[in-house]
Amino acid sequence: MRLAVCAEMVFTQLPFIERVHRIHEAGFDVELWDSRSKDIAALKASGAVFSSMTGYTSGSLVDADTADDVVKTAETLIPTALELGVSRMVVHSAELIDGKAARPVYRSNGSMWITGARTLERLGALGEKHGLTFCLENLNTLLDHPGIPLARAKDTLVLVEAAGHPNVKMMLDLYHAQLGEGNLIELVRTALPHIGEIQVADVPGRREPGTGEINYSAVARALVAAGYEGTVGMEAWASGDSMEALEAFRRAFTLEADTVHDGLGQDATAFSTEVAL
User: What is the pLDDT of residues 56-103, one digit of tens each?
Assistant: First the structure.
């Protein structure tokens, strides 16, 4: 597995390109949000590996009136993704403006489910054409994103399964899942075949692992035992020094050979060396 860090949330006192350099030099891949305001040439020249970026700029995946906008704006971002070597483009079940619902909806209906699955199918076909994967991210509606329909991890999993396309996966955000659902280890096991990438932050505060209530070392052991081989990205604010936050993240997802279990205390595959996710 690979570790990535969201450059939007650490080293915030520095210019964005310098954040990317710091993350890359520390040995992590880089996550981006909106790429439209970024210096793409400078990002490419940094030598960093970019694991994911926002994959649309307007429209709601589950709204029949605006779903076309999701697909159209996704198409406009694909050249940037290809230039940077991004493999995963992140979408949500509704349009976000500064993290908030552009048009809050507090009750879902059958039309939303059908529209969401069909829009994801279209994105999957687009991803297949260009060698990209579109990842539907779960969100919490209790604190950060009220008014986003079909946002729970269980809902996004059902939508991804309904789309049934190999270029459509989940961006499973465990911070959001902890706030809305909990039971994280069982969640990652259930969703494993459909996960494109995992994002982490601790609760409360959305800060680096080790600052809150989530036992990320146990989550890491369960991921290894389950055979997850994808990317784990820290999408979290630093509680203090950003480099220390990156190292805390690395420690949480670095396991000693004799500590890998299946999450229930059972020994999993034996390792002869330290396992760095």
Answer: 999 999 999 999 999 999 999 999 999 999 999 999 999 999 889 999
Residue 270, burial from CB neighbour count under 10 angstroms (0-12, 13-18, 19+)? exposed
**How high is the pLDDT of residue 270?**
29
pLDDT at residue 171 in the model: 98
R_g over Cα of the chain: 18
Q: Which of 202, 127, 200 is nearest to 169 (CA)?
A: 127
pLDDT score of 163 more than 80: yes
Of 121, 257, 190, 214, nearest to 199 by C-alpha is 214
Question: H-type helices in the chain, by residue range?
Answer: 16-25, 40-45, 67-84, 110-130, 153-163, 174-180, 184-191, 216-226, 242-252
Task: For strands 29-31 and 254-255, give the pairing.
Answer: unpaired
221 contacts 261 by C-beta, under 8 angstroms: yes
Cα separation, 250 vs 262, whole angstroms: 20
Q: How far apart are CA 172 and CA 234, in angstroms?
A: 12
CATH number for the domain that contains residue 131: 3.20.20.150
Range of the domain at 202: 2-276
The pLDDT of residue 273 is above 60: no
Q: How many domains does the chain have?
A: 1
pLDDT score at 24? 98
CA-based nearest residue to 135, from 90, 167, 85, 82: 90
Other CB atoms closer than 10 Å to residue 81's CB: what's the count?
24
Non-local CB neighbours of 12 within 8 Å, separated by 6+ positions? 19, 242
